[in-house]
């Protein structure tokens, strides 16, 4: 009877924190602290905290990149590495990087592309653990990346799988910005780096690509400013008209 009483006390607290009903089963196993519950609540409300009238120079943009075993988390592809950089007015303030130990063997062609071997991830955290620290790092910022849809598809999939929570943060893709500025059809990341003469010493690594994206983002901020695109609202409007 006492255990059942504690169960319902915990369930009511989760509901009071606005954790969705369908997520309760993921949190009533006794493994999640009140701190983690509050963290999830803040994630769900994060979108409301960003004022679109804020000048781009004052927005905390967080550049993200992931290395994965494929393109579809729904088909069993996994995350191998995650990197992020907190920036303000184009200046990197803090960096994050972790390898992730996958559930299945790393395909040989992915090891050849990323350089990540089985021995490299042997002592790396599992995704459930790594995801918590990654989300805590990027929390509060506006996500940005090149072809960021790939990274967000994995983030959303595993956030729902492990926490039954939907991702609701602001984000931008650099690719449409480069397309708008350069007036070219569909620039790849490599083409954008080549145009702006940015060297990426560790291409196809999460931390290396984030480092290159940070340099690109600093240049793009100046390009946007020259076009009188100075706030989040201006950026949304400009991208919607391209």
Structural class: alpha/beta
- State which percent range the strand residues make up: 5-15%
**Which H/E pattern describes the elements?**
HHHEEEHHEHEHHHH
Distance between the termini: 62 Å
Roughly what is the average pLDDT, rounded to an integer? 85
**Helix proportion:** 40-55%
The biggest beta sheet, please?
5 strands, mixed
Order of strands across the widest beta sheet? 3-2-1-4-5
The number of E-state strands comes to: 5
- Segments where pLDDT lies below 50 for 5+ residues? 5-31
**Shape summary:** globular
Radius of gyration: 20 Å
Q: Helical segment tally?
A: 10
Q: What's the arrangement of secondary structure elements?
A:
Elements: H1 2-16, H2 24-27, H3 34-45, E1 60-68, E2 79-88, E3 91-99, H4 108-114, H5 127-138, E4 142-145, H6 148-163, E5 171-173, H7 174-182, H8 189-195, H9 206-226, H10 232-240
Parallel strand pairs: 1-4, 4-5
Antiparallel strand pairs: 1-2, 2-3
Short description:
This protein has 242 residues and is of the alpha/beta class.
Q: What labels would you give this structure?
A:
alpha/beta, single chain, 5 strands, 5-stranded mixed beta sheet, 14% strand
Write up this protein:
- This protein has helices spanning 2-16, 24-27, 34-45, 108-114, 127-138, 148-163, 174-182, 189-195, 206-226, 232-240; strands spanning 60-68, 79-88, 91-99, 142-145, 171-173.
- It has a five-stranded mixed beta sheet, sandwiched between helices.
- It contains ten helices and five strands.
- Residues 5-31 have low confidence and may be disordered.
- Helix 7 crosses helix 9 (206-226).
């Amino acid at each position: 009877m006492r255990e059942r009483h504690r169960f319902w006390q915990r369930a009511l607290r989760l509901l009071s924190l606005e954790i969705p009903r369908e997520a309760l089963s993921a949190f009533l196993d006794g493994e999640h602290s009140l701190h983690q519950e509050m963290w999830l609540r803040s994630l769900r409300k994060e979108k409301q905290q960003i004022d679109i009238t804020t000048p781009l120079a004052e927005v905390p943009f967080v550049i993200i990149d992931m290395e994965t075993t494929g393109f579809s988390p729904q088909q069993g592809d996994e995350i191998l590495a995650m990197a992020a950089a907190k920036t303000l007015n184009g200046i990197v303030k803090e960096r994050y990087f972790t390898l992730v130990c996958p559930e299945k063997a790393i395909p040989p062609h992915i090891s050849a592309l990323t350089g990540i071997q089985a021995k490299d991830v042997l002592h790396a955290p599992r995704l459930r653990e790594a995801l918590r620290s990654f989300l805590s790092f990027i929390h509060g910022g506006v996500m940005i990346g090149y072809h960021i849809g790939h990274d967000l598809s994995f983030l959303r999939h595993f956030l729902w799988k492990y926490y039954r929570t939907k991702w609701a943060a602001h984000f931008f893709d650099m690719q449409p910005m480069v397309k708008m500025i350069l007036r070219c059809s569909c620039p790849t990341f490599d083409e954008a780096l080549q145009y702006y003469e940015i060297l990426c010493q560790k291409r196809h690594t999460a931390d290396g690509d984030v480092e290159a994206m940070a340099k690109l983002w600093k240049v793009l901020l100046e390009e946007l400013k020259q076009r009188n695109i100075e706030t989040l609202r201006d950026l949304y409007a400009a991208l919607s008209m391209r």
